[in-house]
Amino acid sequence: MHKQIFVNLPCKNLPASKAFFEAMGYQFNPQFTNDVGASLILGDNLFAMLLTEDFAKGFTSKPIADAKTSTEVLVCLSCESREEVDSLVAKARAAGASVPREPQDHGFMYGHGFEDLDGHIWELVYMSGSPGQR
What integer pLDDT is reported at residue 134 of this predicted model? Predict the structure, then answer.
C-alpha cells in the first residue's frame, strides 16, 4: 500500500501560513520548502504541502476553492490524548485560527478542530476505544 501522504493546500500568504504552523510547534522539511511551497511535517510520513495559489494552479485545471467560503477537504489528524487535542486547538487559536465549533465528545472518540488562516479545516481526534465502548 501507500507509504506517505502529501495533502496539498493552497495558501494566500505562504510566509504567514508557515509562521502560523510554526507557532503551533510544527516544523517544515527544508528539502521541499521554497518561496512557492512548504512541506509541513505532521508526523512520520505525513505531510501537508502548503502551496501559493499561483503554484497550486499548475497542478489542476479546476479553479482553486476559497476555503473560507467552501469546503474542499477536511484534514483529520489523530492525537495521543484529549489534552493533546485541546492543546493544539489552543495553540491554533493563539496563532490566529478560528474555532467555529465546540469540542465533540462521543465517548470512545473526542474531537475538536480549527480553521487555519486560509480557512482549511483541521480536525483533531483522540480515540480511546471503538464505537459502543465507553
Answer: 52
Task: Cell numbers for 90, please give them.
Answer: 489552543
Distance CA 72, CA 126 (A): 23
Q: How many CB atoms lie within 10 A of CB 25?
A: 10
**What total of structural domains would you count in the chain?**
1
Query: Is 106 inside a domain boundary?
Result: yes
Residue 134 maps to a domain: no
Tens digit of each residue's pLDDT (9 = 90 or more) over 109-120: 999 999 999 999
Return mean pLDDT, the chain: 94
| Cβ 20 vs Cβ 97: under 8 Å | yes
Tell me, yes or no, whether 52 lies in a domain. yes
Answer whether residue 24 shows pLDDT above 90: yes
Q: Locate cell 497550486: which residue?
A: 56
